[in-house]
Structures are given as C-alpha cells and as structure tokens.
Write a structure and sequence with these properties.
Length: 108
C-alpha cells in the first residue's frame, strides 16, 4: 500500500501556513514557494488558496491588498491574535503527538 504524503500533511499544513505568516506577511504564491523551500514541494497552489480562505473565515488570518511592482496588487495574509493562539496550542499538541508517534514507530 502506497503512503499518500498529501494525506498525512493535510492536518498539519494549516499550522505550517500560520507559522510562515506569523514570521512575515505573505501572499499565496510566496507561501507555496516557502513550503517548497522546506521540502514540501508536493503542495500545489490549488491547495493553498482554499486553506487560506478557511483560515480567514476562522479569523486566524486577515488579508489585505498591497501594490506589486510586477502586475496587479497582491493579496497578503497576516496572522491574527486568534491565529497566534492557535499556533501556540498546535505546537504543544504537535510536540506530544510527534514524540508518541516517533516512539511507536522506532525500529526494534
């Protein structure tokens, strides 16, 4: 049975996006590029935009337009206080879960 990396990433991608935006306001393509730089090049732009809309709907990010030297204005995303709380809590949960999973999956 083949392991689907995208399926494994699905639940953690929102947190990765929030952390990137926490470090610096970004637009969609820039987020995709940053994820790719970290080795998540299998994440398509078509995946990022629905997630950004979901995060905005949940008040974890806000968007604003900013002029670009390379065409029309770009839609940038900025993390909200709710988003900061979410990422703080996610990191704590992730640490516990990843430690447990690593322990379970370690070689004998």
């Amino acid at each position: 049975m083949e392991i689907n990396t995208s399926q494994i990433l699905k639940g953690t991608l929102e947190a990765c996006i929030l952390q990137l935006i926490k470090n610096k306001d970004m637009y969609g393509y820039e987020i995709t590029e940053q994820l790719s730089n970290y080795g998540l090049d299998m994440v398509a732009q078509g995946t990022i935009y629905p997630l950004l809309m979901k995060l905005e709907k949940e008040n974890l990010v806000v968007s604003y337009l900013k002029e670009s030297n390379f065409g029309p204005p770009r839609k940038y995303y900025s993390i909200t206080e709710e988003g900061n709380k979410y990422i703080f809590n996610f990191k704590d949960v992730w640490k516990n879960i990843s430690t447990t999973i690593t322990e379970i999956l370690k070689d004998d």
